[in-house]
Amino acid sequence: MANLGLLSGTKSSKSLTKSAKSLNVNFRIPYYTHWGQSLLVCGSEPVLGSWNVKKGFLLSPVHQDNELIWCGSITVPSGFSCEYTYYVVDDEKNVLRWEMGKKRKLLLPETIKDGEVLLHDLWQTGGDALPFRSAFKNVIFRQSISLNIEKPEGLIRNKLDQEDSILVHFKICCPNVEEGSSVYVIGSTSNLGQWKIQNAFKLSYAGESIWEADCVMQRGDFPIKYKYCKYGKTGNISLETGPNRTLSIDFSNNQRRYIFLSDGMMREMPWRGAGVAIPMFSVRSEADLGVGEFLDLKLLVDWAVESGFHLVQLLPINDTSVHGMWWDSYPYSSLSVFALHPLYMRVQALSQSMPEDIKKEIEKAKLELDKKDVDYEATLATKLAIAKKLFNLEKDLILNSSAFQKFFSENEHWLKPYAAFCFLRDFFETSDHSQWGRFSHYSEDKLQKLISKDSLHYDVIRFHYYLQFHLHSQLSEAAEYARKKGVVLKGDLPIGVDRNSVDTWVYPNLFRMNTSTGAPPDYFDKNGQNWGFPTYNWEEMSKDNYAWWCARLTQMSKYFTAYRIDHILGFFRIWELPDHAMTGLLGKFRPSIPLSQEELEREGIWDFDRLTRPYIRQEDLQEKLGSSWTYIAANFLHEFQKGCYEFNEDCNTEKKIAAKLKSCAMKSMLLESEDKIRRDLFDLLKTVVLIRDREDPKKFYPRFNIEDTPSFKDLDDHSKNVLKRLYYDYYFHRQENLWRENAMKTLPALLNSSDMMACGEDLGLIPSCVHPVMQDLGLIGLRIQRMPSEPGLEFGIPSQYSYMTVCAPSCHDCSTLRAWWEEDEERRRRYFKNVVGSDALPPSQCVPEVTYFVLRQHVESPSMWAIFPLQDLLALKEDYTTRPATEETINDPTNPKHYWRYRVHVTLESLQKDKELKTTIKDLICGSGRSCPQAGQASAATTSEKQQVAGGRESNPVAKPLNAVPQKEAVAVV
Asked: What is the arrangement of strands in the sheet containing 595-596, beginning at the earlier edge strand?
């Protein structure tokens, strides 16, 4: 991020000495705080605490008009320099929050020997940092990189020769300046042009998007009103938005004054763009081999640019080859958080001199694997077999090349363990490293022996190096192509790793291996979700400042300029389940403050066995299991009191129940299916009110949806009232500070480890601390219209979304727009009435007009990004809606063994030729005021839309505005 400090330089700081002439440095920053909070300045010099916040310099609040201004003065010598940052602290100087961005730098030139230095700062927010993330800096605003630095930042040239003169150093951050344009200050004084652009005060470019210059003013000029503006050679003027800026000075003393204005960001209409989302495996091209491949991204980028998109979003692309079967299609279960998946390799690009027999083999395989959906196992096996043949032919040529040597030296820290893991996985025929004998426990000595050049299996190890090198080369080529085309490539950071992964083998101390990660009941599943990943040992990770996470993000940034943080709530708290659980209901939040036995006893709650054991009565068994209840009870339960049952020791967990059912000889005697009986037994197991902590039996956690349990319903009224109150306190109140503190430890480490733009998937049960933290850190949230975060709404209102969001009609974890529209008639009618504003009967099919209306709502929203699944975009044209909508779903979150295999049924080459669809999409995006890769499209959008309305559906089968629906003007974003 650019330094938004007031002055900068490289000169070393000086301490205050008796011989030096002193200056008064006055800090001034407007910032609203809550009761009990204060602002302080902490910096590199002793007078500012030497980066010890407890010794930082406290500021004092002053009310000025409607603002709360924090001020303070320190005495320093001439030539003083330091770095500093503002912090919000409590009464004991504990840090509550700090400003984002780089440390501010202060350099007072030797020419300033006496007087008063006034520092007018603005708080640096996380949002201010976004234009300096690589997505904008290196892709969208890349034209600004070519600007020549006109003078070093902070350099002061003017001197104060007259006593009543005042030096004002203007400084503004403006990341989006086209070549040939400059930044000016225009204002009320003659020095600032008296509001005439031809006489405005020109600033110099100082690098890192900073524009600044010092201007000598007279006392009579104050108060000064001014604004910043961009002015190009062609005469284009862009004046910043909002009210005039004002600079006033108290002239009660006669000291020389040097005012340094750090005016933050130039106020412009917020940049808004659009993107397309599709999993890598879902892409289809004429060149691919059964699955989307990294080099297909070049075609996708071309199509995106011509359709008006600035972003392409993918699902995770890491190697997931854990089980050696189609289960590995699950892209969020990483075998390695560093290695790329061989599935996405283009075998044709592995060799420049490929033998004819292998070429024929590839062409034959292309025909066999060009299916409606991905055949995960056959495709991966085919690619690996072909790659192995080419490796045997060219291994020395490739592995001795300078390109490979460079790749290897930069990646050997993860590449060596990964290759060794893959060898051991195949040798032992399992990824469960607990089954690897003496190799179960990782060590550097064992690794070096495994990868030794003298070992018999050295070529097997080198084959994995070879695959990763080519995958890296192909993805790097596609990523660089996207950057040059002005397209942000957005990756996905999974919240977990597979428990049988390279990372859990090499770094077992970073994971809680006796636990499982999931999510409490939500929109996706009323029973919660169990993803099966071990939870993180955050305490251990913090010891090296989250080095594993930093390395992971650094690796991602080689290819991506933006990323989505999967389940960002997990960085506040994670839903933790015991490793014997299969479903996601009987969990607890980690970290969290449990209910103590002492606390419960004070409230009159004593019978902990009754509350923590499954509450199973004979009538419950009869109702749930029907006529089979006696037979099932005899095999899984025993009666410990009259009419009261509990599970036998060999089936008192979900995994034990499932295992016993699978091997049960009585299957043929049962009337119901195994799945039905398993679900029923799981339900009985969950009939608890409290969950006892496995590590401390005197701590308890209320079961989610506690009031739904028969156990709770049979309690006395006093117990019900107490437990209900404690339940709501646990889930909605008592954890907020703890979770906020946890996130403020973990998330900054992620964000600071790369310059990628970060978006957080903040769906589900959202604690109240989440959105303020995301706002502080500059994290962009996610809004799905059918899953509104506002209480009491069935459908979100895109026109009311905040700027720091990504809006989308659907995502990979839910049905597509077409499928959602068609699966529920009553909901469809409510949407048509409440959102479309029509009392007419809605069409039963998601016709292009419906799609157009929904997409238009989203592109017109204030959200920074509107990102659309490719399936939803294809629904704009009838030709692409012949496939049943249900077949376009990528994932079913309720099914832990879902096969991730959806493929787009049209090739990228065909989409590229479809000018009609591209024009419709581009007109839709650009007509909304969103930025498009090519300028000047807004007027075309209006024309195209009028033609659609006039021509009717027959003349344009792509899409048109929904009949009988009042068309809205483009949303004005302020």
From this structure: 595-596, 699-702, 690-692
